[in-house]
């Protein structure tokens, strides 16, 4: 595969838009045009905290038409597993950051006649790019965003460019019947959900109960709930390195911390990029990529989310 | 059962109601399409059966036949006309079932797709003749009801080899001039799609 | 870079198309070994390769002007050879941006692109085109963006929408194809439009290729080669016009086989487009006659071996039946069974 090239970015602006939400504007360090991007795309930033290296993906909430900047919004997560604390505490204007080239694992449907967007909290970020793109098309759009009462104003400001008939804010203080939002949509409607894991389970569960076909359900998880499990040792067969995987880190993170950089992309078990062959040991699969047969065969695994059954596994790395 | 030969050749399945639907609409090329089928009575989502009677004098309009909400149409075109109005006002959760010959099936699917239905929302059952609609790739004319391996194009007179390559969008098989290289080199004509 | 264009070459009627010596040496000969079989054979599209044809994102060569004129003729006779479904407008602009930026960067003598916000200014000197337009506003161009820019590029292009874990060929400019129809195939899925290719489905080539392409990333294009043979240097070997070029196949005899029969190589490139998330598939077509190729010692021997040992199904599918044996008979006396180097490079600096 092509060697991953990286982008050298500089923080143009970084400001808190709510006590736990930071809005960051990134430009190219040499002011050259950034790659064009589409609605739903993300960028992975290389972050460093306590000598631990992280590469976290953030939705590109907005991209300048002239390719001069990308905007992201980051929620401070307590406790920070790495990344959000760095962004909130350390990132300021003028600082340089390395990033991977953007990718897109959550594009809108281009054949949909109507787009129904349902988000909660920080899950709104991909939908900000959707709204910007979709307003230039003929399709109908509806956004229903759920948020904490104390962040209502922040989101209202973010959504100001969009007409009130299209966007609806639901502060958690009022009770909303999600099922009600999902009924009676024309056949050509697609549903998109983004937010914490539990929120998405609720909305997608309601959609399935209301007979939404799976070809019209799209979701991007910001849960980060894949990490964690019993500790184990992963032996990298080609180098002989033995990697201790702690209970609060993923196998991929542990391998990276040991100085090896296997290919990876979505870090969420969906894209297949980190598929690794198993030489010995049994995997505990947590991905959405392999088939049930491939899971049973146990010959390969997604190291970004899956772990080992038992305390030892040997990988072809 | 139609023999699938190449991957563009669609595959059809026996009629069966989808388990998770808000409503079922069955659309059939003949009014006897549900004979020998057990349409489950009782606990399923609302179901309607639309069928072509092919008879100008036959009654049209909604009625209940054998406990099933039924509607008859004078022709396939007549059915498609009402179907387009119906799909325009329908909602997510509708499942569409199409029963008939290939041309009928894909004419209905084309309409369903125009209104935003995807392949996990419609179910296709082949019933009846294997006759093919052939699209002449050279002159863009459709020749209907072809049962032979070679067909004469209704537009430009070419001897067309009726290929298995099928276009869902055109609802037709490709016809290619069989003796383009040496005029007159035409294989024996056989009835292969009865 | 100096390109010696040959604007009046023809790909029909009198077939005046010829390769210069340089054109022969840079030909993307497709055979790295003495035998040919299908494989996914995708590799990164990097600015280097066994021939200069690989060096740029999109290759512009001595035939550029003549090919653009030939494309215009095909489209005049049958406008449906360029068609894009309505939902693919973002992909159209992505394509225009990619081709314009690549041409201007790689061939600054011939193409230039200036931007002032959304106001773009494009110059195509070989074709004598100067166009100011607003990026994103199709009304400011004489054609829709995809047709506009592909009329100024060599080779065919298709646009593939990615949805439902599949790829759908939802648009294309197809005037130099080896026997497939855009009008017929538009809207098909990856497996459907590859349906007529024999053998490959059984060995899972398309399953693996699709899985790979679904993960294709921006800024990481890939490429592969495909090949067939054509009688006369005819670019338009469409099924639509088969009645016009079909008789060519039967016009080959042992006396004219080396001049008439051409190796037709497709350098296929695949790009993930940014705004539409679609895949642009470029099919750049190169033609060289058996006679031209035979001036490269290694190629005339290797071509002989590949054709001699070609599986029967491939002969049928690639349409070689009427003249394959004649080509083999013509090349046989040049083949001394010598060991040839691996890889397709010519191993000689002049012809």
What would you say this structure looks like, in words?
- With 317 residues, chain A is of the alpha/beta class.
- Chain A has helices at residues 84-89, 125-134, 152-158, 178-181, 197-209, 251-257, 292-297; strands at residues 6-18, 21-28, 41-49, 52-59, 62-63, 70-75, 96-100, 103-104, 114-120, 140-147, 167-171, 189-195, 217-221, 232-236, 241-245, 275-284, 300-302, 307-315.
- Chain A folds into 3 domains: 6-103, Translation factors (Elongation Factor Tu (Ef-tu), domain 3); 114-221, Nucleotide-binding domain of ferredoxin-NADP reductase (FNR) module (Rossmann fold); 232-315, Ubiquitin-like (UB roll) (Roll).
- Helix content of chain A is 17%, strand content 37%.
- Chain A has a 5-stranded antiparallel β-sheet.
- The two termini of chain A are 16 Å apart.
- Chain B folds into 2 domains: 23-126, Rossmann fold (3-Layer(aba) Sandwich), CATH 3.40.50; 132-177, no CATH class.
- Chain B is built from 2 helices and 11 strands.
- Chain B has a 6-stranded mixed β-sheet.
- The model of chain B has no long low-confidence stretch (mean pLDDT 93).
- In chain C, helix 11 packs across helix 13 (324-331).
- Chain C is an alpha+beta fold and 351 residues long.
- In chain C, strands 1-8-9-10-6-7-2 form a 7-stranded antiparallel β-sheet. In chain C, strands 3-4-5 form a 3-stranded antiparallel β-sheet, covered by helices on one side.
- At the A-C interface, strand 8 of A face helix 3 and strand 6 of C.
Keywords:
heterotrimer; B: 194 residues; alpha/beta; 2 domains; five-stranded mixed sheet; 2 helices; elongated; C: 351 residues; alpha+beta; three-stranded antiparallel sheet; 13 helices; 29% helix; globular
């Amino acid at each position: 595969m092509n060697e991953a090239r990286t982008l050298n970015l500089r923080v143009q602006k970084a400001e808190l838009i709510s006590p736990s939400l930071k809005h960051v504007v990134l430009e190219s360090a040499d002011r050259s045009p950034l790659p064009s991007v589409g609605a739903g795309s993300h960028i992975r930033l290389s972050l460093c905290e306590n000598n631990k290296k992280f590469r976290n993906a953030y939705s590109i909430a907005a991209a300048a038409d002239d390719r001069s900047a990308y905007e992201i919004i980051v929620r401070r997560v307590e406790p920070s597993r790495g990344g959000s604390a760095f962004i909130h505490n350390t990132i300021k204007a003028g600082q340089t950051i390395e990033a991977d080239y953007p990718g897109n694992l959550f594009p809108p449907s281009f054949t949909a006649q109507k787009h129904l967007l349902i988000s909660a909290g920080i899950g709104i970020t991909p939908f900000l790019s959707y709204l910007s793109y979709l307003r230039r098309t003929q399709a109908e759009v509806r956004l229903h965003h759920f948020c904490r009462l104390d962040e209502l104003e922040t989101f209202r400001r973010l959504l100001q460019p969009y007409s009130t008939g299209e966007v609806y804010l639901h502060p958690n203080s009022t009770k909303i019947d999600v099922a009600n939002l999902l009924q009676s949509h024309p056949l050509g409607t697609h549903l998109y959900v983004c937010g914490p894991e539990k929120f998405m389970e609720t909305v997608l569960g309601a959609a399935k109960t209301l007979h939404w076909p799976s070809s019209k359900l799209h979701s991007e998880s910001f849960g980060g709930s894949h990490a964690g499990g019993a500790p184990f040792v992963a032996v990298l067969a080609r180098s002989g390195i033995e990697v201790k995987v702690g209970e609060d880190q993923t196998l991929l993170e542990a391998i990276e911390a040991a100085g090896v950089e296997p290919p990876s992309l979505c870090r969420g078990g969906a894209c297949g990029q980190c598929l690794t062959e198993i030489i010995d040991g049994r995997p505990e699969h947590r991905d959405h990529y392999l088939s049930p047969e491939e899971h049973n065969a146990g010959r390969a695994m997604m190291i970004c989310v899956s772990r080992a059954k038992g305390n030892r596994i040997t990988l072809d790395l | 059962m139609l023999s699938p030969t190449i991957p563009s050749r669609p595959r059809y399945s026996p009629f069966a109601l989808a388990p998770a639907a808000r409503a079922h609409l069955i659309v059939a090329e003949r009014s006897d399409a549900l004979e020998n089928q057990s349409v489950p009575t009782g606990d399923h989502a609302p179901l309607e059966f639309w069928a072509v009677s092919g008879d100008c004098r036959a009654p049209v309009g909604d009625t209940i036949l054998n406990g099933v909400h039924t509607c008859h149409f004078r022709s396939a075109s007549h059915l498609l006309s009402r179907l387009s109005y119906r799909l325009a006002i329908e909602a997510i959760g509708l499942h569409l079932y199409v029963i008939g010959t290939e041309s009928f099936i894909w004419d209905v699917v084309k309409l369903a797709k125009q209104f935003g239905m995807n392949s996990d929302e419609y179910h296709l059952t082949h019933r009846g003749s294997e006759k093919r609609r052939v699209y002449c790739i050279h002159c863009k004319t459709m020749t209907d009801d072809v049962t032979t391996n070679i067909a004469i194009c209704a537009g430009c007179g070419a001897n067309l080899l009726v290929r298995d390559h099928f276009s869902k969008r055109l609802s037709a098989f490709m016809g290619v001039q069989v003796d383009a290289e040496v005029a007159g080199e035409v294989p024996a004509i056989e009835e292969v799609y009865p | 870079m100096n390109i010696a264009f040959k604007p009046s070459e023809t790909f029909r009627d009198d077939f005046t198309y010829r390769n210069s010596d340089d054109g022969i040496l840079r030909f993307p000969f497709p055979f790295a070994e003495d035998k040919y079989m299908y494989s996914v054979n995708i590799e990164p599209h990097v600015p280097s390769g066994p021939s200069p044809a690989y060096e740029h994102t999109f290759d512009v060569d001595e035939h550029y002007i003549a090919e653009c004129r030939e494309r215009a003729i095909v489209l005049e006779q049958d406008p449906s050879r360029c068609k894009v479904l309505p939902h693919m407008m973002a992909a159209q602009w992505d394509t225009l941006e990619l081709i314009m930026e690549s041409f201007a960067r790689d061939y600054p003598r011939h193409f230039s692109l200036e931007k002032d916000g959304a106001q773009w200014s494009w110059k195509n000197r070989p074709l004598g085109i100067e166009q100011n337009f607003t990026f994103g506003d199709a009304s400011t161009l004489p054609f829709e963006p995809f047709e506009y820019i592909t009329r100024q590029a060599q080779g065919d292009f298709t646009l593939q929408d990615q949805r439902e874990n599949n790829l759908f060929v939802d648009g294309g400019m197809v005037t130099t194809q080896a026997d497939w129809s855009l009008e017929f195939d538009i809207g098909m899925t990856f497996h459907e439009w590859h349906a007529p290719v024999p053998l490959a489905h059984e060995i899972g080539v398309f399953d693996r290729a699709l899985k790979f392409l679904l993960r294709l990333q921006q800024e990481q294009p890939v490429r592969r080669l495909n090949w067939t043979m054509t009688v006369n240097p005819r670019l338009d070997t469409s099924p639509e016009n088969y009645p016009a070029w079909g008789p060519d196949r039967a016009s080959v005899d042992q006396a004219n086989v080396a001049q008439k029969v051409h190796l037709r190589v497709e350098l296929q490139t695949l790009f993930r487009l940014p705004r539409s998330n679609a895949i642009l598939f470029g099919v750049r077509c190169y033609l060289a006659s058996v006679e031209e190729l035979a001036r490269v010692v290694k190629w005339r021997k290797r071509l002989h071996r590949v054709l001699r040992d070609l599986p029967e199904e491939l002969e049928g599918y690639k349409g070689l039946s009427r003249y394959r044996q004649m080509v083999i008979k013509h090349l046989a006396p040049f083949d001394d069974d010598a060991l040839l180097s691996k890889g397709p490079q010519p191993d000689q600096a002049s012809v």
